[in-house]
Structures are given as structure tokens and as C-alpha cells.
Design a protein that fits this description.
13% helix; mainly beta; signal; 5 helices; 8-stranded antiparallel sheet; 23 strands; membrane
Length: 388
Amino acid sequence: MSQDMNGYSAVKVDEEIRNLPVYLDSGRVSVYSTGQFIYVSTDFGFGVSYGGSWQLNIVVPADYNGVVCGLCGNFNGLLEDDFLTPSGVLAPSADQFGTEWMVEDDMSYDCGGGDIPGYCQDESTTLISQALCEIIRDSQGPFSFCHGSVDPMAYFNNCVFDVCISENSNDVLCHSVQAYVSACQSANTVVYPWREIASCVMDCSSNIPNSHYEVCGTDCGHTCASSIDASCEHTCSEGCFCDEGFVRSGGLCIPVEQCGCLYDGFYYNIGEQFWDSTCSQRCQCFAPNDLRCSASVCPPTMNCAVRNGHRDCYSPMSTCTVWGDPHYITFDGAVAHFQGTCSYEIAQTCGNVTDNDLEFRVVATNRHRGNMVVSFVSAVDVWLSQHG
């Protein structure tokens, strides 16, 4: 799942981009959006909700007590051993704890957290942030009925810190308060309207046409997949919900007569064409639940594959490109830039080459042109020879 600038309308499943909702393994796993979250729901109690750049929640059933690990701890009921590293050692600091759980694929990036501004460590200099965040712990405020179910102090302290280091950003304040609202509603407690009090008004109609804001709403029965609507499993949440006469389709609100088609657990919009998982059928959604498929195959020179999130027939060939001041795009899509002025091996056969393959070698020579700062490809040499 990732944040979509046009609303949370699609996810990747096995590298393919899919519209929401998604129902896998006869509904044992559901992925759908409601309110401000994308939910992953399972029939064994595990669940994930993602609110874009500001909030991620993970729910695990009691069966996983003591057998999980990561930044969320080990779920054994003990606070003091939650900051264990993958090697089982207690991390000396939060920064070290986070570093130890870095995903290997991202090791090349500088993920340092930076220094905490000194002025945000002094209570006397956080008075403005405290005043802004006070709504969370106010015993007479809109969340007072939640205080007995969800301790507000951790959320208040985090709000003060985040608002302070963001120089009292209203956007950060709204997301901080929203995190507490989400926790309260997950605990099925009453939350009263708060956004006008905190200057956090949500403009639904501008961001999602044909929608309106509700502090405690649900999409249950109001989606294009209402017959198998997993959103009915959830308590209410705040966010943008479709106006009367409209239903949710991914991240949009559309007239019910514009709903698309369900096929093999996936939802397709009207007009959308797609291949089945083996590229043996080509299908198109013509109208609500009017899906038409016909037998089809990829041309002999193409392969059925998924590229950039889309399944289609693709040529197995690949292209490497060198251009400009030289920029390099490799056969697999990596990008590099350098201005050396020598001759370079651009591509050549390496490793196990069969007797039927031609061996090749391409060398490009870069030279300065116009000035001594930049260089361009000035000559290309190509060699071909029969292996063996």
C-alpha cells in the first residue's frame, strides 16, 4: 500500500496494481478503504490500517503473544523488553533500535533521524504546543468519554513534541489529534465533533466530489461491492463519506449505475480491460457486473508478465540507453550519471553463453564538447563474434 495523491484507491497485490476493494482466498483476506484509511482485514484476526503518511495501525490476535518482533515489540505483555534488536539484545537508544530493524533493501539510504531541536526539550518553550494539543487531554473536551478507555497522555506528549519540532504546524497538530481520535474509535468509545475547535476542518467535497464529512461514519452498504462489503466489520470512523445516491468505488464516490465488475476477487472499473493471471483470456468491464471475456494469447514474440504494476504481453527484449551529459539507464531500469572522458564498456556478453549465441561488445568513448565541464558520447565501437 502507498499513498495515492488522488485518494487511497489502489494497492499492489503480487506486484500488480489493483483497484479497491480486493477480496483474496474466498474473502479470507480483504483490502478496502473507508473513511481516511486503507484496511487489510483477515479472518484470523490480524489486521492493518494505513492512513497515508501519518498513521499505521497493526492488530494481532492473542495467538501471536510472544512470537512477533520488530519496531512494535514482541507482544509478551512486558514493557521492559520491547526494544530488542534482531539479535535479541536490548537496544541502548530509540535511534539504535530503529536502525537495527532497517529493511535490508533500504540499507543504501541515509535514514538518520537527525538531532532533536534543543528548544523542544525544554517545557517552558513548548507552552504554545501544549496549548494547541490540550484538546486531547481536556477533561471537558470532545474526547473526555474516551479517556477511561485510551490513556490520552502518550498522545498528548507526542502531539506536543511533533507540533513543536514542526514550529507549531497546523497540519501536524491535526494529524496528531486525529491519531487519538482513531484510537478512541477503535476502542468503540464516543468522540464528539472536534475539528472546528482545533481549526482542522476537513474539506471533503473539494477533495472527493460527492462526499461529506462525518465524525462517526461507515461505508457499510454504500460501496460498489456491497454484497461482500468487508467495511461492515468495522466500528465507525471519521472521514469523508459518500453523499446520498452515491457509493464508494476505491477512493471515489460515484453513482451506483457507474459501478464496475468483480472478477476473481478483484474490482474493475467500467471500460477497464485486463488479462487473466495466465494471459489466456482478455476481459473488459462494460457495465455494472457486465464482464465479458474471450480467449486470447500473447503474440509468439512476447511473454505474459507484470511490469510497473500491470500485467500484459511484453517483449522479452530490453534496452539500455546512454544520452546527454552522459546519463545511463540500464537494461533493468537503474539510472546513473557521470562525466568521465574515457572509453567505457557499455555492454558485453559475460558468463555462460551458449554455442548458438553471438557474443557482442559495445564500447563508448566520451569527450568534452563546448566546455571542459561536461562530456558526451563521441564514438561507439561494436564487436560481434560467433561463440565457439
